[in-house]
């Protein structure tokens, strides 16, 4: 399958008109034979891409003490419990932060307060933080998330996710797509039979079908 994925990616890259900016590469996934009104059938997965996302990933950490100090090395922003309470009182700022941030991480003991102060903002956006357990290394966790994308269908049969950037090359991008397809097939009730089609394209380029 890897060879046919790479052929589709190569076509998408070759047929994309030249732009004066660095384009991302995305896939559109079409599902079938699933009742997506039932939340248990919806796709909601974090996938680590072996070749990385090719883009900056914005990560915010809620932490205190030593964990906060270490998080400063790798996260885009580190917030403590006082910051969290302030966000709870400023709905507009909380929404802006949620929209600008790809992933949140929080020390497990802060999760209850995050639910209380930010649950109504982060929950509907699928942005509730990944809990950091006492034995977890915050640097490793954040670095892994920088190579992570979210697969989230909600109640739609077609959804999109980023798989790289045009200058990464077809082989690296196809490796990322292969991992995503394998994860989907493992998660879906009927595996490949629940996938109606997958298409790859650059930001402004034509879509090419990926054989599955």
How would you summarize the topology of this molecule?
Layout (H helix, E strand, L loop, with lengths): L1 H14 L8 E8 L12 E5 L10 E4 L2 H7 L5 E3 L1 H8 L2 H10 L2 E5 L3 H12 L7 E3 L5 H8 L2 E5 L5 E8 L4 H18 L7 E8 L5 E3 L2
Parallel strand pairs: 3-4, 3-5, 5-6
Antiparallel strand pairs: 1-8, 1-9, 2-7, 9-10
What report would you give on this structure?
Pfam families: Ribosomal_L1 (PF00687). This protein has 212 residues and is of the alpha/beta class. It has seven helices and ten strands. A four-stranded antiparallel β-sheet has the order 8-1-9-10, covered by helices on one side. The protein has a four-stranded parallel β-sheet with strand order 4-3-5-6. α2 links the parallel β3 and β4. α1 packs across α7 and α3 packs parallel to α5. The protein is globular and about 50 Å long. The mean pLDDT is 94.
Features:
globular, alpha/beta, 212 residues, single chain
Q: Segments where pLDDT lies below 50 for 5+ residues?
A: none
Spatial sequence of strands, sheet with the most strands:
8-1-9-10
Mean model confidence by pLDDT = 94
The number of helical segments is: 7
Oligomer: single chain
Q: Shape, please? A: globular
Tell me the helix content. Answer: 25-40%
